[in-house]
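ok new one. same drill as before - C-alpha cells go in, u give me an amino acid for every spot. 317 of them this time. try not to just spam alanines like last time pls lmao
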C-alpha cells in the first residue's frame, strides 16, 4: 500500500517537496493529495503524478552473437537501456585477428544493441568484440551503454561471439602448381595442398585455342596426365575444392604453360653390308692408244660400278 514520504503546508507554485524513499532498487510512483483550509481531503488519485526509478546496478551483458548472414553483431543486456545508442568508436571487432570496422549502432529492442559491420564475416571464424568505457581522450564525449538510471555498463575485452554466419569461407587460391616431368605425350604435375581443401581439380587446356581438354577431379600431387601430343603447348590450372559446409572452392590458379617434348627419331632397322654388284666394272675409253716400246702407259680411266643395297636401293661408285 502507498506510504507517506513527506508533507508540506501552505505550498506555493513551484515549491519543492523532499520525499524520502526506500533504499532498495525499484520503481517508485508518486501520488499527491491536497487538503484545503476547511480540512477537506482530496480523493485518492487513481494514477500516479510521477515516478522515480531507484537503480544503482549497472546493466550486464547476457549474450553476444554474430547474426546471419554475418554482417551484424547483437549485444543483449539484462535490463532496459537508455535510448541513446553508444558510440561505434567504443567497440572493436576482430575476425580471426583481422580488425573489422563498425558502420552503425542501433537498438533491436529496449535491451539489445545491434552493430553493423563494414564487411561480412564467414562461418566458423573466430570473432571477438571489445568495448571501452574510457572517459578521456578521443572517447571523452562518446556515448556509453547505460540503463535508464544512467548506470554505465562495464567494459569488456575480446569476448567471443556465437558465430551464426551463413557465409562460407573461401579457400586460398593454389600458387604452387608445377610440371616436374615433361615427355612427348605425358606431363607430371606437383603442388602443395591447400589448407582445409577437401580435394583439388586439375584442368588442362590447349594453349593455342584456350579449349578445355580435360578436367581431373581429386587430382593428387605427383600424378601424370597422358595422351598429350608431342611438341605442343598446353596450360593447366588448379582449383582447391571446399566441403560446401564451411569452405567454398577457391578460384583457379594462374595458368601454368608448358610444351611437350619433340618426338625423337627411331631407327626401325640397321643397314647390312650385303650389297652386291649388278654389273662388272667397265673400262670406259674412246680413241686409239699408241705406245712405243720404251714408254710407260699411263691410263686415266673411269670405272663404273653399281651396287644393290637393302630395300632395292642402288648405289653407283
Amino acid at each position: 500500500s502507498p506510504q507517506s514520504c513527506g508533507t508540506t503546508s501552505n505550498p506555493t507554485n513551484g515549491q519543492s517537496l523532499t520525499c524520502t524513499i526506500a533504499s532498495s532498487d525499484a520503481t517508485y510512483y508518486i501520488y499527491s493529495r491536497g487538503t484545503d483550509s476547511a480540512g477537506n481531503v482530496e480523493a485518492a488519485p487513481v494514477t500516479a503524478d510521477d515516478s522515480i526509478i531507484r537503480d544503482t546496478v549497472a546493466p550486464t551483458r547476457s549474450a553476444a552473437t554474430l547474426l546471419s548472414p554475418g554482417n551484424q553483431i547483437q549485444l543483449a543486456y539484462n535490463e532496459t537501456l537508455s535510448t541513446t545508442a553508444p558510440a561505434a568508436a567504443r567497440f572493436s571487432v576482430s575476425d580471426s585477428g583481422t580488425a573489422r570496422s563498425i558502420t552503425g549502432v542501433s537498438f533491436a529492442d529496449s535491451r539489445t544493441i545491434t552493430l553493423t559491420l563494414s564487411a561480412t564475416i564467414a562461418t566458423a571464424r573466430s570473432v571477438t568484440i571489445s568495448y571501452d568505457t574510457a572517459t578521456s581522450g578521443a572517447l571523452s564525449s562518446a556515448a556509453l551503454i547505460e540503463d535508464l538510471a544512467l548506470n554505465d555498463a562495464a567494459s569488456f575485452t575480446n569476448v567471443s561471439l556465437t558465430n551464426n554466419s551463413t557465409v562460407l569461407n573461401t579457400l586460398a587460391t593454389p600458387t604452387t602448381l608445377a610440371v616436374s616431368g615433361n615427355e612427348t605425350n605425358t606431363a607430371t604435375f606437383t603442388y602443395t595442398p591447400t589448407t582445409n581443401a577437401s580435394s583439388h581439380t586439375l584442368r588442362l587446356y590447349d594453349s593455342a585455342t584456350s579449349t578445355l581438354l580435360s578436367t581431373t577431379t581429386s587430382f593428387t600431387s605427383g600424378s601424370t596426365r597422358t595422351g598429350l601430343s608431342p611438341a605442343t603447348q598446353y596450360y593447366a590450372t588448379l582449383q582447391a575444392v571446399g566441403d560446401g559446409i564451411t569452405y567454398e572452392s577457391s578460384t583457379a590458379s594462374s595458368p601454368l604453360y608448358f610444351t611437350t617434348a619433340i618426338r625423337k627419331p627411331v631407327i626401325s632397322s640397321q643397314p647390312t653390308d650385303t650389297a652386291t654388284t649388278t654389273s662388272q666394272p667397265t673400262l670406259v675409253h674412246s680413241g686409239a692408244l699408241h705406245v712405243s716400246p720404251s714408254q710407260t702407259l699411263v691410263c686415266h680411266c673411269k670405272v663404273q660400278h653399281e651396287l644393290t643395297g637393302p630395300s632395292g636401293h642402288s648405289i653407283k661408285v
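The chain has a mean pLDDT of 86. and btw The radius of gyration is 49 Å.
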